[in-house]
Queue: 2 jobs
Job 1
Amino acid sequence: MIWVETVVNGMLLGGLYALVGLGLGYAFGIMKIVNVAQGDFIVAAAFLGVFLVPWTPVHPLLVVVPVAIISFIFGILLQRLMINRVLGQDQIPQILLTFGMAIVLRNGMVELYGANSQSINVGDLRFMGFDFLGLRLGVLPVVILGIAVALFAGLHLWMRHSRMGRIIRATADDYQVVQLSGVDYRRVYGIAMGIAMALSAVAGVLLAMRGSFTPYSGADRLLIAFEVVVIGGLGSFWGMFAGGMILGVTQLVALKLDPSSGLMWGHLMFLLILFLSPNGIAGLVRR
Amino acid sequence: MPLLEVENLDVFYGDFQAVNGVSLSLDEGQTVAIIGANGAGKSTILNAISGINGQKKGSVRFAGEDITRLRADRIARAGMTMVPEGRRLFTSLSVEDNLRMGESAARKGPWTVQEVYALFPRLGELRRVAAGSLSGGQQQMVAIGRALMTNPRVLLCDELSLGLAPAIINDIYRCFDRIRDTGVSIVVIEQNVAQAVTAAGYAYCLLEGRVSLEGATSALAMKDITAAYFGTEKTA
């Protein structure tokens, strides 16, 4: 039973990992932009969450709403004022730009908050648990998985059925030709980056509720995001979700067997999948 | 006053100049053809006029406004759009979603999804199908429909016949009458001279980025066109 519980807990963690990857994968899938600063934005969103929690009414969990809105606006500004200026065939300027932003952001956070470990306090919720079919599960991880699933499903449906979703998908297919239909792809890119930032920010806040973070956590977060996106296969929503699950389950099962291994087995699983199917899970299904 | 007037257009790809001092004009309701061999600069001209390629000199005037420096999406909203070479459909969208993209131009006019299905009945049956899985001819119909959905005043058509069977090419060109009836003026690019001459009232022949011959299609002799097309003898 203890193993079943470990696997279930791994899936609860995996849903959150999937959400960490979603922002990165969404931005890459649409704009072919690798945002190296994504990990540090995730941490910055967590700091923003710490800052806003005292003013959040009803329940600290709701802090994700203002953080997501602020990050959405920030993402639009980031894309329109900076990244749109370095678009082109050559990807190096984008990577240099976001890499530079990552350094500025990380050091800015150290300057403001110091290097201490922090966490977002969600009160009693953090310690609450319940029994389900003989398993002992935490309420917070289940709620977080629920949020992750809801965001994946919501984004999927919105992209499929809304007018803006259609425009974003068309822009991802061919950003030059959408102009012939009267669409300004720079504006669409702004909205897509806003969504990517909002998703990442929610992931960052939820991670900070489950565990702790420092201004240096960005690199770890970015690595998880990359692994989720690559395991899932670029651009596939449900592939990414499965990628997060695989990472989460592998990590917790490995920690049970070898408590000092940290994230190592997750990374090894990533390499194994990359070796077996270079196009990720989605590539495996397509074949 | 012509609806579209291009004067002394130079177009560049980096340091390479692909089009050299081209002037052409299109009157309301007219159909004009640009013919020429591979690499003569035909597509380059349309990409420059539609705003996709911004590396240009000279002037492009549309409905009396200077649009030389206008972005492609603004030009589409102003009423001029293009059916791009190779069709370039949004492959992850369905046929109907491809057509509906044209609504983004927010222009009122006769063309709706229903009207496009009336023009190409086959598309109505395929409306839910992913655009990438269609045959070449069906894809070309979607590309034309998508452009019409912006309710353009000027439609620029880049090599509609590329890679299509002759019977299908005839089907597609047969629709031009319907399109013209709704008041759309058309510029077509063709490698297929016979096709272009029947579809258009006026033609420009391009050779190495310059206009080598122009005139009303009824007045042009095939011999002169051949010479201007291949550059076998100097024509003005």
Note: The first helix of chain A runs from residue 2 to 31.
Job 2
Amino acid sequence: MIILKNITKIYSQNTIALDNISFEITSGEFVLLIGRSGAGKTTILKMLRREEDPTKGNIFYKNKSLLELPRRRLMEIRRKIASIFQDFRLLNNKTVFQNIALPLEIVGLSRKEIEKQVLHVAERLSLKKKLNQIAKTLSGGEKQKVSLARCLVGKPEVILADEPTGNLDPISTFEIIEILKNLNKEGITIILATHNKEIVDSLKTRTLTLENGRLVRDENPGSYALL
Amino acid sequence: MINIILRIINSGYSLFKEEKIVTIVNIGTTILISFFIWIGILSFYFFNQMMIFLQERLDFSIYFKKDVNRDEIVKVQKILANFPEVNEVQLVTQEEALQKFQKEVKTNPIIFRALTQLKTNPLTDYLIVKADNPEIYSKIANYLEKSPFKVNIDYTTYFENKEIIQKSVTLSNKLKVLVSFLLLIISIFSGLIIFNSILLSVYSQKENIEILRLIGASNWFIRMPFFFYVFLFSFIGYIISLMFLILVLENTNSFWQGILSNFKPTAFIYDNFIYLNGIILLVLIEINFISTFLALEKYLKI
């Protein structure tokens, strides 16, 4: 489903963020990207949503090069490869409903259809009572749930999770990981970047270990202890 | 389609409501720029009126020899009246000329007494030519010089007034060029000020724009609410500036009339209300739209 082929990313002043990285992720996998800060986890996720382009190499999604996609198709891909972030990236002055509804507004659904789908996802993530609350007034865990709901409402095929539990307490962390596990069971491919040892050890899933921009291990299941 | 329009209006209005300080700055900038534009337009109008005022006081008179038949003079009058740009060719008869002269010299007892002692009317029939553009006077003078009527003409005042006529034409043209240049400078500066002001609004929304891009929003999905927002503050800013301008002009009418009797700025605005306001608002919104488009480009590259 996703293939990274000889990806190298060099920033200005010859800083090598990624060094000749290649791997393949099949549909429905739950993959962990681990490594210390600056190892290149976030850069890989940015490239998967074409927020950044590699200096060398190519990225394929469903056998099509992401780098050759026209801008219009790229926006469609971003709806299929959805993202959640450590800092949630919500529209803070909007309500929970408005935040979740955004991907549906982008595709131009009717108000009625948007309401139906938002309510469905909100119910699933226990956010129904929070729908009219302004996003900035939510707790960290709730914000991450809203962020996940915003992904889900667009019916994504892949979710890129960039340190989604980095700002959360242990209970919220557990809750978010459980949601991601359930979504994966439903067939959504999850790529989770983390440096949380408990998450890595508890998930027992394929783990890609990055070190100084290089892929040093690809194990299934992986272990944090190996770092 | 209706959903998309409603979303644009809703999101644009949210920008207006949420970014209060930025919105106030934008409205203030629009008011200021509308004033600059109005000052330019009213200056143009003022100079135009000033030229009309001066030109009305300049005429071109043709004096005929004493023995010339009035029918011959009427013939010349008809020919000159057909000249393009000539407004009026007035025949002043010998009798009217005398009455006019007597009125003018009433306060000078020596000339008045000398005039009444004369048994005959020393004055002759003459023609007064009036035109919007004084440049036509030189063409008439050239025409008369080459025409068969030349022998009937005693003298014309064109050569007496030539210098002042030419100066007024030159001054009028120079002032128009100057005001046009000033309007151009104002437009460029207005564009830059508006661009910076809009850059501020876009900058305050840069995180939101980035989020929208990351969840797959198209460029137009992001741009359109900004366009509506820009339209909203431009319109409000312009209406405030227009109301204030009319209020100021209404209360200073007598002041302007004192400077130049035919300069009536409020009448000028009311007479051309739809045309002038439509054009200014259109130009203002267009500058704002282009500025928004350019200001957003940087953030749409993600």
Note: The radius of gyration of chain B is 31 Å.
